Amino acid sequence: MTGGATGSGTGGRLRRWRQGALRLTSLRFRLVTVFALVALIAAVSVSGIAYWLTRDAVLTRSQNAALNDFSTSLEQRASSLPDQPPCHTLRSTAGELASTSQGYQVVLVMEMSDGSVCVAQSDPRTFTLEMVPDALTEAVHTRRTAPADAEAAPFHLYWQRISMGGEPYLVGGAQVMGGGPTGYMLATLGPEQDDLDSLAWSLGIATALALLGSVVLAQTAATTVLRPVQRLNSAARRLGDGELSTRLEERGADELAELTRTFNRTAAALEERVADLRAREAASRRFVADMSHELRTPMTAITAVTDVLEDEVDSLDPMIAPAVQLVVSETRRLNVLVENLMEVTRFDAGTARMVLDDVNIVDQITACLDDRAWLDAVQVSGERDVVARLDPRRLDVVLANLIGNALKHGGSPVRVTVFEDRAEGRDDVVIAVADNGPGIPAEVLPHVFDRFYKASASRPRSEGSGLGLSIALENAHLHGGEITAHNAPEGGAVFTLRLPRQAAARTGEHAPERQAGTERDSRAGDPGGPDSPDSPDASEDAGAAHARGDRPADPADTAPAGGKGER
């Protein structure tokens, strides 16, 4: 019970995993994903471009205002200074420069006449000369050369953005011409950065809303697009289930509407074709049934004559006796073929019936072997008390086919194993028939149960009717069971018959016992037939399947004990 529960749990998880994988690969998921990705890329691109343009505009405006104010104030203050101002005058001038509305700090540097350097700072706690980047200092003191006809100044105003303590700042510097001081300014960009951060958050929220809106739009679009596809899928399923009259309503003039029209045309053509094939198949079945029925009466007369000839064969001319034996054997073969054809027509028409009874499987196998004198050539093993509710006559037909097939092409001893299978909630009886033959060629194995299948066209004739294994399979299906064939690893072919322990009778479990001739074919006057107790049990084998190149053939076309076919 634990193993079964574990297997069931594993199977459930596997099914859930497959369903999840199918959802991830569904057309709806892909449409929504594409919509979302396109919207996300578009929103991020637009937001990024807007952010960088706004950032550049804000910072450029702020820094230009501060630099222009610093340049103008430095020029005005420096022009009023004497040629060699004292250091305290420079400090006073730095304070005046820093008192503007821009709110920047100033450092003035000037080399004095005695060779010393005066550094005047508006606020030593906020801005010192050491905070000025070396690259900026070098650029400020570099003299620029210009063409002779140009009036460009030899020194320029330079600036650089820096970060201190996580806060952005603007540092600018310029040298006053004519031997004046060099001035540096430090302006904070904190307010502008706060504005840019707020803008970034707003753009992020807008991007998220755009993404959400795109997903909703994609869902709506996917529903609109996939609804016709879903209707088409449902219609295709019904068509595959056999509802050939399925049609879809044609609306619109788009590609999906054209697909709908194509589906309707295809379904109509398929319905017409299938109806034609069914009519041809029904006519063919009626022909086979009529032919089989019509052959019964002359075959009865021919069989009576051949029986008389066989009884008198010893008194016939030795030159004629072989011909008589040939006529007798071919008549029996033809008789079995007719019986098998009638049995097949019953299966095709769905009129085959079962009479169920409680059957001991091992006893039934033993009786089958005893009736055909196969006891010495077959080994039966397995559980002796396995009882199932089956049709004993049909089970005898199946066993005769499988065991006879193994004896003919596998040789003795044939091993028949009986066991019960109750795994995963099943309640089946399994009968395995294994032989010692060469096995079944891989290209023939899928066809061993086909009607009249020939593995080699060069050998068109075989000893049997070519229908026995097909009839055995149909009898298994009638019980709700199955027959499979495979090659054993150690060699030889293995045919496995699996039947439910409680088979349900197609016409009722309490159907009265049939007597000879009570079950008729679709035509009146059919004397007996394969379903009657006195009809021959055609035993079929897969001769082609055992590397002989033959089609499946009847191994012995055996009949019940005492019948004319048992020699």
TrEMBL record:
<feature type="domain" description="Histidine kinase">
    <location>
        <begin position="290"/>
        <end position="503"/>
    </location>
</feature>
<keyword id="KW-0902">Two-component regulatory system</keyword>
<dbReference type="Pfam" id="PF02518">
    <property type="entry name" value="HATPase_c"/>
</dbReference>
<keyword id="KW-0597">Phosphoprotein</keyword>
<dbReference type="InterPro" id="IPR003661">
    <property type="entry name" value="HisK_dim/P_dom"/>
</dbReference>
<feature type="compositionally biased region" description="Low complexity">
    <location>
        <begin position="529"/>
        <end position="546"/>
    </location>
</feature>
<keyword id="KW-1133">Transmembrane helix</keyword>
<dbReference type="Pfam" id="PF00512">
    <property type="entry name" value="HisKA"/>
</dbReference>
<dbReference type="GO" id="GO:0005886">
    <property type="term" value="C:plasma membrane"/>
</dbReference>
<keyword id="KW-0812">Transmembrane</keyword>
<feature type="transmembrane region" description="Helical">
    <location>
        <begin position="31"/>
        <end position="53"/>
    </location>
</feature>
<keyword id="KW-0418">Kinase</keyword>
<dbReference type="InterPro" id="IPR005467">
    <property type="entry name" value="His_kinase_dom"/>
</dbReference>
<keyword id="KW-0472">Membrane</keyword>
<dbReference type="InterPro" id="IPR036890">
    <property type="entry name" value="HATPase_C_sf"/>
</dbReference>
<feature type="region of interest" description="Disordered">
    <location>
        <begin position="503"/>
        <end position="567"/>
    </location>
</feature>
<feature type="domain" description="HAMP">
    <location>
        <begin position="223"/>
        <end position="275"/>
    </location>
</feature>
<dbReference type="Pfam" id="PF00672">
    <property type="entry name" value="HAMP"/>
</dbReference>
<keyword id="KW-0808">Transferase</keyword>
<feature type="compositionally biased region" description="Basic and acidic residues">
    <location>
        <begin position="507"/>
        <end position="524"/>
    </location>
</feature>
<dbReference type="InterPro" id="IPR050428">
    <property type="entry name" value="TCS_sensor_his_kinase"/>
</dbReference>
<dbReference type="InterPro" id="IPR036097">
    <property type="entry name" value="HisK_dim/P_sf"/>
</dbReference>
<dbReference type="GO" id="GO:0000155">
    <property type="term" value="F:phosphorelay sensor kinase activity"/>
</dbReference>
<protein>
    <recommendedName>
        <fullName>histidine kinase</fullName>
        <ecNumber>2.7.13.3</ecNumber>
    </recommendedName>
</protein>
<dbReference type="InterPro" id="IPR003660">
    <property type="entry name" value="HAMP_dom"/>
</dbReference>
<dbReference type="InterPro" id="IPR003594">
    <property type="entry name" value="HATPase_dom"/>
</dbReference>
<dbReference type="InterPro" id="IPR004358">
    <property type="entry name" value="Sig_transdc_His_kin-like_C"/>
</dbReference>
